[in-house]
Specification:
130 residues, alpha/beta, 5 helices, globular, 5-stranded parallel β-sheet
């Protein structure tokens, strides 16, 4: 499974990459939205994880999501918010913006891996029908 993780914090990126790669995922890291847009165009992806706050004077994860949605190449590709925004109502706000799922930091990796397993399962079923 190929996963793009958009995260400006190097430690958070390293932890996510380590956890996901231990579970047989190929993780590509983008430290900002512009790099993520380039990587989306040049890689075959199964999932995108996006931090909301991507640093000062950078596009945020919500703007990046809107830019992703303008690209035909990612139609149907799940995009999850992974964020420190964890107040009541934040999850619904990010789902309403258009994210397919939401994970607050610190990430519950069991929950994330369970959702990823469901995606992998549906990918396998799609490949069998092709």
């Amino acid at each position: 499974m190929n996963i793009l993780y958009v995260e400006d914090n190097k430690i958070n990126a390293m932890v996510m990459e380590k956890m996901l790669s231990k579970n047989n995922a190929n993780v590509i890291i983008a430290e900002n939205g512009l790099k993520a847009l380039k990587l989306v165009k040049n890689n075959s992806l199964d999932l995108i994880l996006v931090d909301i706050n991507l640093g000062l004077n950078q596009m945020d994860g919500c703007e990046l999501l809107q830019r992703f949605k303008q690209l035909d190449i990612i139609k149907g590709l799940p995009v999850f918010a992974v964020t420190a925004y964890a107040m009541p109502g934040d999850k619904q706000r990010f789902i309403n913006i258009g994210f397919d799922n939401y994970f607050s930091k610190p990430v519950n990796f069991d929950k994330l891996l369970s959702v990823i397993a469901n995606i992998k399962s549906s990918l396998g079923k799609r490949e069998q029908t092709i």
